[in-house]
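Weekly puzzle thread! Below is a chain. First person to post its structure in token form gets bragging rights.
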Amino acid sequence: MAKSLFLYRKNSIFIPGNLSENKKTGNMELIINATLLLAAIVLWIYGQYWRKKCGKVLCQYAAAYDEREDREKPLRQAIIAGNPHAPLLYALTCPELFDKVRPLRLFSFGSIRCVFAGYYFPKRFESWLCDDQLAFVQKVYDFKDGKDSCTEYFSQAFLLLSTDEDITAMFMPCSTSDRYYRRFSGIASFLETHGYVRSGLDLICITESRECKHTSEKRSEINTANYMMSNDLYGKRVVIVDDLLTSGSSLMEYAHNLERAGAKVEGAVFLARTFQMPSPTKVKRLVWKRHLSVLIRRRSDDL
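Winning reply:
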């Protein structure tokens, strides 16, 4: 009995010591874990800082190039690095990746076969464009002002549309009669002289001036019925010619009026199509998808 009591007391003496050691061990583990977590957070912040720095440098590096082929790769890397400006520049550099239709390829707008020569970009994007894009946008401005007939672009478009001399080209009415003839007289003469189509330049008459849709803040509220159509349109097969395709509302309205006059609309030809800017999320998704597909392909090749 005495021996058992002694053992009990002996063991009781050592219990407080064991608790103290366990507590010290637990505190040490807590300190180590907290230190590791803090180190991981610091490294993550440091990595994010240099990731943003690299993305900024890559975006600036790409913007310094004048050719689209030179911009594409560094912009992809800048997007992966998280640069906020890279998606905009990438979309402008590679517009064909974000549009359902392509330049100089036939597509349907409603029931109308259409073709356009290139992309037009609004003025707010001009500082981001490559040299060839700036040159084409300037062509669009020159055509609007009657300084350039852009025959090389329209001739390619009409060849794709497969028109013949029985087709009559009908030109989109402008805000004033002077602007209408200044803009379309040159290309109308070229198309008829070279046998692409007949000119229907004089088959409409601008009866009054109206506000220009391209400079108006409320395009949909402008009354575009400022012209009269000739009775000679009845029975004619026509192709609509215009400088710019944006929403397509003017095209559909004009086509409807031509058909009411007895014409049959065979197609539409445009010098340019206004590029619709995609969302940054859409750009990032496409770039990441292509990037991951490349990595998977390389991995498969290594195996």
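Puzzle host: Confirmed. Bonus trivia for everyone else. The first helix runs from residue 2 to 63.
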